[in-house]
Amino acid sequence: MMQSPWEDTSTTGVLVRLNWDNIQPSPSRYDWSQLDREMNRAVATGKQFSVAVKAGGQGTPERIFNQGGVERISLQDWGSEESYGCNKPPCCEWKMDLGSPADPAYKQHISI
Questions:
Q1: What is d(CA 32, CA 11) in angstroms, rounded to the nearest whole number?
Q2: Which end of the chain has fewer surrounding CB within 10 Å, N or C?
Q3: 4-19 in b/e burial notation, b at 16+ Cβ within 10 A?
């Protein structure tokens, strides 16, 4: 069983990955509580940390497609079971919906 990176003394740093739709639950509201919690854990355990905000998969807010005028691009990774260390779907059939980075409406949504 893998030890928690917070408890593992050989782990010197962690990646804090947050979903876009969790940190921005509405167009004009941000919720930094997850980031605050993870940063506090990193500091308390002496870990360095990096922060990433995930779009795609479950990370992209549905509102940008439904009300935001962004065209949905749906992608699916049909990777092999061996490449992901699993023996059955869905772990090797990852799906994600994104907005086109060239879409002006999408650019408006991702700029802070």
A1: 25
A2: N
A3: ebeeeeeeeebebebb
